[in-house]
TrEMBL record:
<feature type="transmembrane region" description="Helical">
    <location>
        <begin position="154"/>
        <end position="173"/>
    </location>
</feature>
<keyword id="KW-1133">Transmembrane helix</keyword>
<feature type="transmembrane region" description="Helical">
    <location>
        <begin position="119"/>
        <end position="148"/>
    </location>
</feature>
<keyword id="KW-0472">Membrane</keyword>
<keyword id="KW-0812">Transmembrane</keyword>
<dbReference type="InterPro" id="IPR018688">
    <property type="entry name" value="PpoB2-like"/>
</dbReference>
<dbReference type="Pfam" id="PF09948">
    <property type="entry name" value="PpoB2"/>
</dbReference>
<feature type="transmembrane region" description="Helical">
    <location>
        <begin position="258"/>
        <end position="278"/>
    </location>
</feature>
<protein>
    <recommendedName>
        <fullName>Metal-binding protein</fullName>
    </recommendedName>
</protein>
<feature type="transmembrane region" description="Helical">
    <location>
        <begin position="77"/>
        <end position="98"/>
    </location>
</feature>
């Protein structure tokens, strides 16, 4: 602050105020967590790819993520899937979550609260708990659908067309008011959507904020998540594209417009998948 006083209370151009140590630590830990989760995701995807995929009627292949390997139990498969899912979600969602956590820290720090580290961790854990619950719901549905597709060749042959229709629907979802409402809640600073003004900055409030943020985020990401699950849950290229799309619509200056542009791209991909499926049929 010496340079401020020396210039009559004005900041010197090109002389930014130093970032507090706690904020630098927050960014450093976030970067490290992203790097580790991304590396583990890449290794897991490579391992799944090395195991191969099962050719299915209709000219497509099924991921081994939904199938038990020799000597593997169902609880073991579920635990393996959930572990991969959590790490993948951390890698995919952290780029757009960090700015929201930063805004939370600024809002709470403005009240004089000094336990920013612990409260931030609670928000993050609550956020990813919602995504963990989502993965727990996805796994049995995926396993059941895989079993039906292996038992019913006619159903398996319809998968490419169904995948195209689902991707088309995911693109259309990007244009809805429902999407816009949840995207607005994800983009704004803590306020009416996420944390009511006047509530104490304590552990319970941080936990609720993380859960609400996770719920809004999972609703907002419904379209891209559908694409991820249908096109390739462990395909690194699909994960990278979906991560970029989610990050852009959260952080771009015109988020709603970005979401619609992304929706148009997704819908176009759905049309191409449908055309390809009809041509193969």
């Amino acid at each position: 602050m010496e340079h401020v006083r020396a210039t009559g209370g004005r900041e010197m151009p090109g002389r930014p105020i130093d970032m507090p140590v706690s904020q630098r630590a927050f960014l450093g830990v976030s970067a490290l967590l992203f790097a580790v989760s991304a590396a583990v995701t890449i290794v897991s995807a490579a391992s799944m790819s090395a195991m191969g995929e099962m050719p299915m009627p209709g000219g497509w292949t099924m991921s081994t993520a939904w199938m038990r390997m020799c000597g593997q139990t169902w609880p073991g498969l579920a635990a393996s899937f959930l572990g991969m899912w959590i790490v993948m979600m951390v890698a995919m969602m952290l780029p757009s979550l960090v700015p929201m956590l930063w805004r939370y820290r600024v809002a709470v720090g403005g009240t004089g609260e000094t336990r920013l580290g612990g409260l931030t961790v609670l928000v993050g854990v609550g956020y990813f708990l919602v995504w963990t619950a989502f993965g727990m719901a996805v796994f049995p549905l995926g396993v059941a659908l895989a079993a039906l597709e292996m038992a019913l060749p006619a159903l398996a042959r319809a998968v490419p067309l169904a995948a195209g229709v689902i991707v088309l629907m995911a693109g259309a979802l990007q244009f809805t008011e429902w999407k816009a409402r949840h995207l607005a809640c994800c983009r704004e600073a803590p306020g009416r959507c996420l944390m009511l003004p006047g509530l104490p900055a304590d552990a319970a409030t941080a936990w609720r904020h993380g859960l609400r943020l996770g719920a809004h985020c999972s609703y907002c990401c419904a379209g891209p998540t559908m694409v991820l699950l249908v096109v390739g849950a462990m395909d690194l290229r699909v994960m990278a594209v979906v991560t970029a799309a989610i990050t852009v619509e959260r952080l771009a200056p015109r988020g709603e417009r970005a979401a619609r542009v992304i929706g148009a791209g997704i819908a176009g991909g759905g049309v191409l998948l449908i055309a390809r499926a009809v041509g193969l049929g």
